[in-house]
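User: Can you predict the 3D structure for this chain?
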Amino acid sequence: MQPLLFGLFLSMYLMIMLGNLLIILAVISDSHLHTPMYFFLCSLSLADISFSTATVPKMLVNLHTSSKSITYAGCLTQVTFFSLFACLDSLLLAVMAYDRLVAICQPLHYLVIMNPHTCCLLVLLSFFFSFLDSQLHYLMVSQLSFCEDVEIPHFFCDPSQIPNLACSDTSTNNILIYFDGTIFGGVPLSGILFSYYKIVSSILRVPSSGSKYKTFSTCGSHLSVVCLFYGTGLGVYLSSAVSSSLRKNAVASVMYTVVTPMLNPFIYSLRNRDIKSALWRMIRRKA
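Assistant: Here is the predicted structure, written as structure tokens:
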């Protein structure tokens, strides 16, 4: 069973790396794609690669070798980077929703509002707040006391599951985890929902049904990725809260940490004509 799982997850990880790197290379190599929307897409692809790299390589090592241990320092490192890139994904999706809001509701001022300085600032702010979130998780886990040889019933050190394994009191940590999830998960999601509320309101004022479809189709890929990311993320925490089944919790986490980053490039490349054209041009140049 382990060789089969190793081959499956190795294939999925390679697809994550290849798909997201192709998106980045396509955007960099094609001057037509040097726009705010694709700059944010490149940032999201880089965050997806890092998000999976925080957990999957260690899981592959565990599947390939007889040793399935992780050091305390290694667990802290995994918690820190997992929190960093999960939060960065969430914030970048909110930034991309704002980008679509400006493009649809204020098209004449789009390039003025979303200038290169603003775009870089939004990405840097997203990284800064994600870094703060990761440090909060690091401090929460590092303050816990553990008994020797703790068994983690998971394929990685999930920040939401680690307090359950501690020997010390975790009530403060549990409160902080819910507070953190509300701030760094709920606020970006609220921003996305507000952006799409304004977008839909603006589109409904367009008289032509063809124009409505064409305008909203520019949001299709982003909306699909948002539903996938938040849907699987919500599934992880609902499954851990409602069900005590370790298998179900692990499956939900795999969907969140592996399947979502793997599907994002396919969603953007299959639903986006500009990305498809850029990829074909890049392939023809190489051939």
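The mean pLDDT is 84. The first helix runs from residue 2 to 29.
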